[in-house]
């Protein structure tokens, strides 16, 4: 074989460098395979942000997961909307005295069936299970009727998420598919089929929330908010979207770690065109609009008012149920989300936060617990290492945490 001319080495080196930049995940995986490196490789952002503009260059990481999650949530929202507008919601009280409805059961079954059709090996941490339906045939048949009716009007979209669930027994199996104990290894979805069930029953905001966690890190987040106005800049007040019958309501939010966040109109068929969303610049925290739960039992309105006042905030809080709060600050309609604990023992559930956290991070925000500690999603079904939640634009997050700590330590004296 003739010797390789020296310039060819440069050519090979250039090709290797270009693949490492353009396709880092594939590159490092291939290199690991060649070098027989067995340890788990980190998730690598597929390419620098400037290359994302040209979609023909490469496939975006988690593109399939994002599309599946968006369509699965969109289909589940068809079901939740039909229950929302009917007067009988089949409400039960769970052992922790919180409510659950036929909407929660139906939406969870539909979404898990979609996940399993595309990613059969993935685990799911879902809020609900099929125990009540197995014990009550009438309840089971009510939910089965709803599940059969909830179809995307676009048959390709419906097919891409597995098509209809085949039988009532398959529905129960899907519903029970959310029993994963979570953890920090591999791919685990966190699902809240109806977040803000109390808002759903009261005629307020609610959200259908789904996140994919990879090695315990929320990586893909999708939230459907059937009662939020589509306009990202619609003024936010505690009445936002309360009239579910009004035109133009229903938003679908999506985000992938390292790729930004979007909103689009929620439809009953194929996905609408996405719009990029970002948090509002907030040069002066005293001008902030802050969001909090409607339910005083879910977060301390008193502590939140004290924090706002110390930050010089004079605007009233916007009280809103569900992860619609994360969505609202991610699209710049509000600025801060404060969730201070009401009890020493309550552990926040991962499905109440995973999707919202990806959305806010990707829109330019930071989310931590009340003491500024990062949220640990990789230790089970709850955030047991954390207390409370603070979400804010990156530029003011540390300033807000200082004030939160002052308010909390003053309480201890
Ligand atoms: N004592 C408590 N402290 C904090 N969150 C609580 C709580 N009791 C219930 N929750 C959670 O609060 C969620 C609703 O949050 P919000 O007040 O922001 O709307 C509920 O979700 P579900 O409605 O899915 O059960 C539930 O998981
Ligand atoms: Mg609940
Ligand atoms: Mg919830
Ligand atoms: Mg719920």
Small molecules in complex: adenosine-3'-5'-diphosphate, magnesium ion
CATH architecture of the largest domain: 2-Layer Sandwich
- The first-to-last residue Cα distance is 82 Å
How many strand elements? 14
CATH topology of the largest domain: Fructose-1,6-Bisphosphatase, Chain A, domain 1
Q: How much helix, percentage-wise, in residues?
A: 25-40%
Spans with pLDDT under 50 lasting ≥5 residues?
A: 35-56
When the domains are counted, the total is: 2
Helices and strands, in N-to-C order? HHHEEHEHHHHEHEEEEEEHEHEHEEH
Q: Tell me the radius of gyration.
A: 22 Å
- Mean residue pLDDT: 89
- What is the approximate shape? globular
Question: CATH superfamily of the largest domain, called what?
Answer: Fructose-1,6-Bisphosphatase, subunit A, domain 1
Strand order of the largest sheet: 3-4-5-6-7-8-9
Main beta sheet, described?
7 strands, mixed
Strand content: 15-25%
Which descriptors would you attach to this protein?
single chain, 413 residues, alpha+beta, Fructose-1,6-Bisphosphatase, Chain A, domain 1, D-Maltodextrin-Binding Protein, domain 2, seven-stranded mixed sheet, binds adenosine-3'-5'-diphosphate, binds magnesium ion, 3'(2'),5'-bisphosphate nucleotidase, inositol-1,4-bisphosphate 1-phosphatase activity, 3'(2'),5'-bisphosphate nucleotidase activity
Question: Helix and strand layout, with pairings?
Answer:
Elements: H1 6-22, H2 24-34, H3 63-84, E1 92-93, E2 99-100, H4 102-118, E3 123-126, H5 131-135, H6 137-149, H7 155-160, H8 168-175, E4 187-195, H9 197-202, E5 207-214, E6 217-229, E7 249-256, E8 261-265, E9 275-277, E10 290-292, H10 301-310, E11 318-319, H11 324-330, E12 336-339, H12 354-362, E13 365-368, E14 389-393, H13 394-412
Parallel strand pairs: 3-4, 10-11, 10-12
Antiparallel strand pairs: 1-2, 4-5, 5-6, 6-7, 7-8, 8-9, 12-14, 13-14
Helix pairs in contact: 1-2, 3-4, 4-6, 4-8, 10-13, 11-12
Binding site for Mg(2+): 127, 192, 194-195, 352
Family: Belongs to the inositol monophosphatase superfamily.
Organism: Epicoccum nigrum
